[in-house]
Amino acid sequence: MDASRARLFVISGLVLMVAGALDPMEGSVVVLAGSAAAAGGAHFGRLRKSETLLTAFGLIAVGVGSLFGFSAIGGVGGDSGRSIWWLLTMVPYPVGWVVGLAACISSLRVQQPSTV
């Protein structure tokens, strides 16, 4: 994959990650898809921060999986019978989101060669 197409994937992933954050529960699938697009584009385009974007994708996947898993079994706290501490299993989602945004922006801030 050439660098311009890889950058397009990273930009589209960044846009999806920001758009999905408008609704953290239903938008989590959009954030997950955006982080996958950004990580894939950076990895196959051999851009900077590709390892960081792959790590962010993994964190988001674990956090979103936990989010949907606990949602499917009735949540945590209250009458569910599960301690509120189980929410810590969802922490990788926002951490991965922040790391992914920072890595996307960092990988896109590459100095273009001078044409002088």
What composes the largest sheet? Answer: none
Strand content: under 5%
User: With helices defined by DSSP (H or I, 4 residues minimum), what is the helix count?
Assistant: 4
Gap from first CA to last CA:
27 Å
Low-confidence parts lasting 5 or more residues at pLDDT below 50?
Answer: none
Q: Radius of gyration over alpha carbons?
A: 16 Å
Return the string of H and E elements: HHHH
Q: Overall 3D geometry?
A: elongated
The secondary structure category is mainly alpha
Structure description:
The protein is an all-alpha fold and 116 residues long. It has four helices and no strands. It has helices at 3-20, 28-44, 50-72, 92-108. It is elongated and about 55 Å long.
Quick structural overview:
The chain has 116 residues and is an all-alpha fold. It has helices at residues 3-20, 28-44, 50-72, 92-108.
Topology overview:
Elements: H1 3-20, H2 28-44, H3 50-72, H4 92-108
Helix pairs in contact: 1-2, 1-4, 2-3, 2-4, 3-4
Which characteristics define this entry?
116 residues; 4 helices
